Amino acid sequence: MNDHDDPLAGAGLDTLAIRAGIHRTAEGEHSEPIFATSSYVFGSAAEAAARFAGESPGNVYSRYTNPTVRSFEERLAALEGGEAAVATASGMAAILSTCMALLKAGDHVICSRDVFGTTTNLFARYMTRFGVSVDFVPLLATDQWRAALRPETRLLYLETPSNPLCEVADIRALAELAHGHNALLVVDNCFCTPALQRPLALGADIVIHSATKYLDGQGRCVGGAVVGARALMDEVVVFLRTCGPTMSAFNAWVFLKGLETLRLRMEAHSRAALELAQWLQQQPQVQRVYYAGLPGHPGHGLAASQQSAFGGVLSFEVRGGQAAAWRCIDATQILSLTANLGDAKTTIVHPATTTHGRLSAEQRAAAGISDGLIRVAVGLEDVADLRRDLQRGLAAAG
Questions:
Q1: So what's the architecture of 13-259 in CATH?
Q2: Does residue 219 have a pLDDT over 70?
Q3: Residue 236 needs a FRET pair 20 to 30 A away by CA distance; which of 140, 226, 244, 376 works?
């Protein structure tokens, strides 16, 4: 196929977000349909046999083939610049599917210690049960990534920006490091989405998403996705087909609708977060603000070079530890106290006792998550109203 055969060849991000992955039926629908079916009818026994054997294309069973889910996969792959995507039941299911498809006993993983707490548990508690060894290293310590490499290292895994401190990794440098040792670089792109950052273009091999977050954008559904080269994604599909961590057709349809406004929302989230971060820096109750959009952030220059904007998540430390942080959170009246992020509604949470609460005190300390840390995922409300609400919280924090 040449560029003239594909009307979306060379299309911009917004066009892909709206038009990629559309396969209209004979009904001529304009909006993508929801294929709410568990199975499919075949025209003959021979056709059924060919489908099950993988000798002819088409749907077999919605555990691993569904037209609505496929549309979401194709659209997300187009946005990330990947050959293929695999949709899963959740973001954690996306990480698990990647590990189970690509790792075996005796393999070694290097994981940033600055990842979501449940990701840490997946690697440390469960993957090790299957004979996979794991080393955790600081996200920014390239020398420690290099020192941890072994001949059996298969994956390097990280989030950038990280949760919740918004640290920024050099994707190009870590990709070069991984590829020099025949390993794959896996990047969780949840905080930025392809609207702000495209890790595959920077050298990463696989991108992970919790579609629950910004890909949806309104906190409606749980889902995940893996994006990368088709040969790698084919392995993930085999695991999905066998073990079934499947995305539902309805959820895929919701995510398709979310992708249509992704860039507009991400730019709005980023503008509001920067304004709020600048304001928080000036408050006497705030000891430190973590947001890569601030010039004083150590990752500011790197983020500016590999992201188009700085995202909607920020964290800040209040003076007085956990007690002050809890008072601050409890005194807000507009912000939603929930661990989710990527919503149109601004959310606030205390990471040390929620998202990272299953980590030991030593692990949290190593990751820089203090008892006074508060994470805010800035939504789409008026920033002036968010400031007033946080001012109530800071006043209560003392």
A1: 3-Layer(aba) Sandwich (3.40)
A2: yes
A3: 140
